[in-house]
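Escalation from tier 1.

The customer reports that the assembly of two entities below gives different structure tokens on two consecutive runs. Tier 1 could not reproduce it. I'm attaching the input and our single run for tier 2 to review.
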Amino acid sequence: MNLNLYMKDFKRYRISLIGWCVIISMIIFVTMSIYPILMESDAIENLKMFFENSFMKTIMAAFGASVDSITNILGYYVGNNSKNALIFGNIFSILLSSRIISREENEKTAEFLLSKPLTRYNIFISKFLAYLSMLLIFNIVLVLSGYISLEIFKNEDYSYKAFFIISFYSFLSMLTFGMIGMLISLLFKRGKAIMGISIGIIISCYFIFAISNITESIDVFGYISPFKFVNSDVLNPNYGIEWWRVSYFMVLSTISFVIAYIKYKNKDILI
Amino acid sequence: MGVIEINKLTKYYGKSLGIIDIDLEIEKGEIFGFIGPNGAGKSTTIRTLLNLIYPTSGSAKIFGLDVVKDSKEIKKNIGFMPSEVNYYDYMRVRELLYYSARFYGKNCDERIDALSKMFSLDLNKKIYDLSFGNRKKISILQSLIHKPKLLILDEPTSGLDPLMQAKYFEILNEENARGTTIFFSSHVLNEVQKLCKRVAIIKDGRIIKVENIENITGKQFKKIKLDMKNIEQIKLLNTNEIYNMSNNENICNFLYSGDINNILKEISNMELNNLTIEEPTLEEIFMHYYQ
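Tier 1 run:
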């Protein structure tokens, strides 16, 4: 790794990182702050009848939630986690990873960078570590925001273990999509249209995951999407780390990482 | 062993030819020019030397090291100035130069200050706010601040005003006096003539000539203008060493590269209104190679 390059990239994206962290914290805090209001009023009882409707059950299933789950503070958090961590967090991850290398070519600074005494490996690893550092910071902020919100707004105890496990799965999904984004940015000549493709991947995968939750008969198709491997059944007494899910994320991330590196190492940098 | 040794270097972009069978050797301490028309393969050659692109076949060495396998080691002692000047717009000039210097593990603060004063470059300005000429100055500085052993320059003076060009040539000569080898590509034949001892001419991806500058300028070519009484007399010229012939009414212009006595014998058989023999400009000589 080259520390000079790592620090340059870390500083370059720090404003964007701060912005995303502030936004995600606010979203989590605001959505969690609604929970005690829902619980104290009759709103949830009135809503229960509404949510018993088969259409609404379908919608909630698509987001990995149910009427019973959202009346539990952790279940309510996870129901929103689908939106906050999985969609926003993965968009943050894939946008960052898909730009951090390809941007040098897009903005034509690659000629300057590659004329310095650096190997392709130095450059790739430095940029990957800069991306990983920012992803970790984002997830720390996400977890802290979630934890603080849960502690402030809880009306009952909840499983800390389940909270950290779901956060861990969310992080793994972000890392996996990040590596996929990095690979995709290197497959395209000069990194064009990466932003649209990256967001499109997240939305498409989430859509497949959501549709697969609606009914058991199409449940298996959901496994096309990495989101399906995030187990959000936090209220299940047997909820724990399932190593086959973790292995899926690690294997997919590693394969994407290795192919991305090979591609970058052998690429002609054309300005 | 030359500083740069290029052996049958070939690069295809898919099916399109970039360069083919390039053989060149540049000696230590030389200022070597590399000229050719647009699309000839100058930038392809330079980018292959810097391992920005990979050769299809052939090889190249710099300081005796392979340009692909030992790229990092080579680049510790290279200063590269690209033809296009693209830097990180959000940085200030000072920030970029310090960032560049850190890659070489050297303290270049004094040199940055000295060169920035020499080229009147404001170190506190944001790169985004700079003109092309000022960005070119950044390019000059970042190639020089770490005192490299080899300078590779691609169109170095485009965008510089005449005063800055003069200062830049002064710097290049100082660097060369210090032992720095300079390899540069250019369209500006005037600067090639001023700086270089040897030059390679590339066209359609191939080296067509490597020659000492003094052999090309003046000693070999003569520019001859014949104002004839009858243009039909042109048939009396039988030599093969005539280039770039153009006829306008009774006037015939051409470059001649052979023995002056031979052409004078042939001209003496003609009836002329006027005869002009002069030294051609470098542009006129090289246009012959460019076509």
